[in-house]
Design brief:
Blueprint lengths: L6 H14 L22 H4 L7 H16 L4 E6 L11 E6 L25 H8 L2
Antiparallel strand pairs: 1-2
Length: 131
């Protein structure tokens, strides 16, 4: 496990004790939640599945987290939770590394950037799956 990666989880009970008497509470759910400092009251940071800045900020955050905490980790962008009443599932950004320090991913240039057009179309994806 990368150095200091357990700090947040180790300090939550302490934080909860320290803020409870002041009328504030801290809680955590099934996944970490990111809230933008620029516009913290925007629905995209509170209840909406998507928003103008949400995905781009999330991608920048997961890349920075990888760089700082686990430089040879594997980034995975996949399907997240699908809540009742939402037309599509949310997305999930994951960062996987080995606790023993063995590299999982070497070349970050092979991780596609979502905002870059590589010139491929749907047909290219199907052709890559065919024998």
């Amino acid at each position: 496990m990368p150095k200091n990666s357990g700090i947040v989880y180790n300090r939550l009970p302490q934080h909860r004790r320290g803020t409870g008497g002041a009328g504030r509470t801290a809680d955590y759910g099934g996944e970490p939640t990111f809230v933008c400092l620029d516009d913290p009251e925007s629905p995209q940071w509170n209840i909406d599945a998507l928003g103008d800045m949400k995905r781009s900020r999330g991608l920048a955050f997961i890349r920075a987290l990888r760089e700082r905490m686990a430089p040879h980790a594997l980034l995975h962008y996949g399907q997240g939770k699908w809540y009742p009443g939402e037309p599509l599932p949310r997305w999930a950004l994951s960062c996987f590394w080995r606790a023993d320090g063995v590299r999982v991913w070497e070349d970050t240039d092979l991780i596609a950037l979502e905002n870059h057009d590589y010139g491929f179309a749907t047909g290219d994806a199907f052709r890559s799956c065919m024998p």
